[in-house]
Amino acid sequence: MPHHTTTKKEYALMTYYEKELHRIRAIVYANEAQINTVIGVRNYIATNYELNVSLDMLSHIQFVSKFHLIRLFKKYYGLTPRQYLIDKRIERSKDHLAAGMTVTGTCFAVGFESLGSFSSLFKRKTGLSPAKFRKEQLSRSKSE
């Protein structure tokens, strides 16, 4: 939201309520650039999770340092961009596995480069290996 800079003359002519609105708006929109940065990064990750998404690339896209980006993202979402990317990939992999895709096919479809790291992260996040998750989902869909 573009802000109009109020002159001293304009400010003097404002009512009490206009001044309060002006004061509150300055507080509410003070972090707008930060919020837009983290939302932009989150949206990029959410729509491009299967690509080779790196912190260097994300910081370059948003014109912000890597370290500042990590701090901002963690401040607003409670996770680093990397943690969010992994969560997004695991979330999507569940859909692929439930639809019957192989574990190896799922691994590469969601952007992991190593079957071993995919399997260990999947198990850590869900409590099940990808193969066991797939088997349970497929047997559940057959029984319904």
Automatic annotation (TrEMBL):
Alphabetically ordered keywords of this record: DNA-binding, Transcription, Transcription regulation
Listed SUPFAM superfamilies: Homeodomain-like
Entry GO MF terms: DNA-binding transcription factor activity; sequence-specific DNA binding
Name the record gives this protein: AraC family transcriptional regulator
Source species, domain of life: Bacteria
The keyword Transcription regulation belongs to this UniProt entry's keyword annotation: yes
One Pfam family cited in the UniProt record for this chain: HTH_18
PROSITE patterns assigned: HTH_ARAC_FAMILY_1, HTH_ARAC_FAMILY_2
Organism expressing this protein natively: Pukyongia salina
Keyword Transcription: yes
Gene3D superfamilies in the record: Homeodomain-like
Domain HTH araC/xylS-type stretches: 39-136
